Amino acid sequence: MNAPRLIKLKIVLEYCAFSRATLYRQIKAGHFPEPVRLTGGLNDANAVSRSVAWREEEILQWMANRQRVPLSETRKVEQKSSSL
């Protein structure tokens, strides 16, 4: 059995094409997988850790579950953006 691969923030942002702020908003809203703590005690809920990563399979599953957008709809969005 393969061990789950953990990926850091930079890679997650590349996968999802989100800004850092958008990513954390999506996590807070419950729309994106939460990171896992890499440092600190596993049983210490009060441990403060800045070192986190995401399980790659959760990110890939999140991406696979995104609804596809027809090309005709993406053109409408592009036209609205360029007219601003």
Quick description:
With 84 residues, the chain is mainly alpha-helical. The chain is built from four helices and three strands; from the N terminus they run βααββαα.
Description:
This protein is 46% helix and 10% strand. A three-stranded antiparallel sheet has the order 1-3-2. It has helices spanning 9-16, 20-28, 56-64, 71-83, and strands at 6-7, 36-37, 52-55. The protein is mainly alpha-helical and 84 residues long. The longest helix has 13 residues, at 71-83. It has one domain.
Q: What is the residue-mean pLDDT, rounded to a whole number?
A: 84
What number of domains?
1
Q: What order do the strands of the largest sheet run in, or round the barrel if closed?
A: 1-3-2
Largest sheet, described in full?
3 strands, antiparallel
Rg of Cα set: 17 Å
Q: What is the SS-derived class?
A: mainly alpha
Number of helices: 4
Strand content: 5-15%
Poorly predicted residue ranges: none
Say how many strands there are: 3
The share of residues in helices is: 40-55%
Spell out the helices and strands N to C.
EHHEEHH
Shape: globular
Distance between the terminal alpha carbons, to the nearest Å?
Answer: 51 Å
Structural features:
84 residues; mainly alpha; three-stranded antiparallel sheet; 46% helix; 10% strand; globular
List the helices and strands and how they pair.
Layout (H helix, E strand, L loop, with lengths): L5 E2 L1 H8 L3 H9 L7 E2 L14 E4 H9 L6 H13 L1
Antiparallel strand pairs: 1-3, 2-3
